[in-house]
Amino acid sequence: MKLDVDALRYLSKEDFRVLTAVEMGMRNHEIVPAELVDRIAGLKHGGTFKVLKNLLKHKLVHHDSSKYDGYRLTYLGYDFLAIKALVNRGVFASVGRQIGVGKESDIFEVATEDGTVLAMKLHRLGRTSFRAVKSKRDYLLHRRSYNWLYLSRLAALKEYAFMKALGEHGFPVPSAVDYNRHCVVMSLVQGYPLVQVKQLENPGDAFETIIGLVVRLAEHGLIHCDFNEFNIMIDDNENLTMIDFPQMVSVSHRNAQMYFDRDIECIFKFFQKRFHLSLQDDRVEHGDVGSDVEDDGRPSFSSIEKSAGSLDKELAASGFTRRNQEEIEKVHF
Ligand code: ADP
Ligand code: MG
User: Fold this and answer.
1) Per-residue model confidence as pLDDT tens digits over 60-118
2) Is 128 in the pocket of ligand 1 (CB under 6 A)?
3) CA of 193 relative to ligand 1 center, distance in Å
4) What are the structural domains of the chain?
5) Does residue 137 register a pLDDT over 50?
6) How far apart are CA 279 and CA 103, in angstroms?
7) Measured from the CB, is residue 104 less than 6 Å from ligand 1?
8) Cα(67) to centroid(ligand 2), Å
9) How do residues 222-232 score in pLDDT, each as one tens digit?
10) Which of the four pLDDT bands, split at 50, 70 and 90, describes residue 8?
11) Is Lipid metabolism set as a keyword in this record (predicted)?
12) Tens-place pLDDT, residues 242-288
């Protein structure tokens, strides 16, 4: 999706007031009745209705009159609210080009006042899994606030909390700068996703480091669950950075072993196929990946699990609650 932020400059205080009113109405309504928007915004002389027309023109809201005259935010409208909040807070001053389209996100470069370039990830939960989300609605229906805004916001909160905690524990992750709504701001990683790399000077070293990361994560109590060549960045000096954390789970998750083995398997398969690394590689056989290994050379989850740390529990205390985790798992798994 194109993010035309030029419109940001043309939007007035009233425009944002009404946009925020639509957002507030969405806590209880999938489509917010126009009168309710008007009541929340509290503009004089029917001003709300004129503003809504303007917002509609800029595609910041969607008009729906199938049941009653109402509006909902579009992704773009939600993007603008988050961007505006972050700009007001001085986190960045301008939005640049799009650098990534993930399964459930859009990533842009942003620049601070002093010209530092950062990365901004806009979560779009429900873009691909909307059907899955719908079928799980029964569970979520009792939460009247449930909708894609809420889920995208949860994903951003989780990503920010995990990125921060992992960074503090010495994991190679982007540094977490700030977040608002469904938007996470982080340092810009130099390099490319591993999937784009055709040749490596030391594939064995990279392999070892990556498997070591999966093991060390588990030792801290966490499993990435989407650890693959798309979510590992590598630079020209073959330094690695891991990204993309909204689907992480605790080692005490009922399917933890399966997720752990799957992450490991992805890495083994990729290095075998792309760099022709032999699974009988000495380093793997002799356990230099930093843990016990099974007969097939894979690190053993059960031996790690026993002594796992409690980063998962620390995170539950950081504002991203257990209940939030359950809600987000309904979408991802
Ligand atoms: P998704 O959850 O949608 O897969 P990712 O976090 O994996 O989103 O990001 C998608 C792509 O955007 C990545 O593969 C990468 O190319 C780019 N990207 C994400 N974060 C950064 C960052 N901090 N710096 C540079 N590029 C990034
Ligand atoms: Mg990804």
Assistant:
1) 999 999 999 999 999 999 999 999 999 999 999 999 999 988 778 999 999 999 999 99
2) no
3) 8
4) 5-76 (1.10.10.10), 92-187 (3.30.200.20), 192-320+328-332 (1.10.510.10)
5) no
6) 30
7) yes
8) 38
9) 999 999 999 99
10) confident
11) no
12) 999 888 999 989 999 999 999 999 999 999 999 998 766 555 544 45
Is 226 assigned a catalytic role? yes
Check residue 79 and give its pLDDT: 95
Task: Report the phi/psi class of residue 207: left, alpha or beta, with left for phi > 0 and alpha for psi in -120 to 50.
Answer: alpha
242 lines ligand 1 (CB under 6 A): no
Annotated active-site residue in 226, 244, 263, 281:
226
Residue closest via CA to ligand 1's atom 26 equals 189
Atom of ligand 1 nearest to the CA of 189: 24
Å from CA of 56 to ligand 1 middle: 30
Checking if the pLDDT of 185 tops 50, the result is: yes
**Among the residues of 169-299, which ranges form H helices?**
203-219, 256-275, 282-285
Q: How many residues does the chain have?
A: 333
Residue nearest to atom 8 of ligand 1 (CA): 102
Q: Using CB atoms within 10 A of its CB, is residue 148 exposed (0-12), middle (13-18) or buried (19+)?
A: buried
